[in-house]
Write a structure and sequence with these properties.
This protein is α/β, with parallel strands linked by helices and about 290 residues long. The protein has 2 domains: about 90 residues, Leucine Dehydrogenase, chain A, domain 1 (Rossmann fold); about 130 residues, NAD(P)-binding Rossmann-like Domain (Rossmann fold). The chain is about 40% helix and about 15% strand. It has a 6-stranded parallel sheet. It has a 3-stranded parallel sheet with strand order 3-2-4, with helices on both faces. Strand 5, helix 7 and strand 6 form a beta-alpha-beta unit. Helix 1 runs parallel beside helix 10, helix 2 crosses helix 10 and helix 6 packs across helix 7. The longest helix is centred in the first third of the chain and has 21 residues.
């Protein structure tokens, strides 16, 4: 039997509608609308698309938004100054800096310059560190979105074996920590140095893959009935369409969909949920910082 598709677009639209209703009530009661600022450095096409999608989402839910687009030649010091300015602007509730940044700018320094309560991407060291506490801050948007997607499809997490393939600072590491500390799953973390990867992935009730390696996970690497979440998205050059490329995830979708019970598509799975989580984080921090 083919797997049930974990439709991130539909769930994200549901979340946006819920947020829009709440924002309308806030405005009706005389409160400010949440305000999200986005910084884009350079003119990378993919980054522009990602930021534009976030701006569209803000419009849909009734958020205020500010887009700051700087040339690729901006200095690290100047960018830090701009972040300081936004940090001090009490009308702006959340700030995202679109990655990647030019090579002469430290993404780690820039990210950690954002005040933790405005860090709606959940990337600062403080928010990352607080994941293990009983009082977490703003959760990283992609892991937050994945958990929400699983829950909306009523997939049991507590006590299940979750195998995380990939240990990046933005997805794999926080994802595995959230699943262990918040959702009480039993977690195995695999990465580039893991020996006999398939022996681990075949044990997963919930398999989450974020490596950037197209079609890494094949059907013989997946347990029957597993829930499979594919975070990867890679452009592969092709002459078979007018765009000149196709998008591929880290999971061989056609193979694995015949074996799994649930699976995310690429695109349309995790990506929309990441944006929905940014909106949820912005709404959360707005309400907290303005005591609504």
């Amino acid at each position: 039997m083919a797997a049930t598709i974990l439709d991130g677009r539909k769930v994200a639209d549901d979340i946006k509608n819920e947020i829009a209703e709440e924002v309308a009530i806030l405005k009706k009661n005389g409160h400010k609308a949440p305000h999200l600022a986005a910084i884009l450095v350079g003119d990378d096409g993919a980054s522009q698309t990602y930021v534009n999608n976030k701006i569209k989402a803000c419009k849909k839910v009734g958020f205020e938004y500010t887009l700051l687009n700087f040339p690729e030649t901006i200095s690290e010091a100047k960018l830090m100054t701009e972040i300081d300015r936004i940090n001090l602007d009490n009308d702006i509730d959340g700030l995202i800096v679109q990655l990647p940044l030019p090579a002469h700018i430290s993404a780690a320094k820039v990210t950690d310059k954002i005040l933790p309560h405005k860090d709606v991407d959940g990337f600062t060291n403080e928010n990352y560190g607080r994941i293990t506490s009983k009082n977490p801050g703003l959760l990283p948007a992609t892991p937050f979105g994945i958990v929400e997607l699983l829950k909306r499809y009523k997939i049991d997490i507590k006590g299940k074996h979750c195998v995380m393939v990939g240990n990046s600072r933005t997805v794999g590491a926080p994802m595995s920590t959230i699943m262990a500390y918040h959702e009480l799953a039993t977690v195995t973390v695999c990465h580039i140095h893991t020996q006999d990867l398939a022996s681990h992935t075949r044990q997963a009730d919930i398999l989450i893959v974020a490596t950037g390696k197209p079609s890494l996970i094949k059907a013989d690497m997946v347990k029957d009935g597993a829930a499979v979440v594919d975070v990867g998205i890679t452009r592969i050059t092709t002459s078979e369409n007018t765009r000149g490329y196709v998008l591929s995830g880290d999971v061989d979708f056609e193979e694995v969909a015949e074996k799994a019970s649930f699976i995310t598509p690429v695109p349309g799975g995790v990506g929309p949920m990441t944006i929905a989580s940014l909106l949820l984080n912005t709404l959360k921090t707005t309400k907290a910082n303005h005591t609504i």
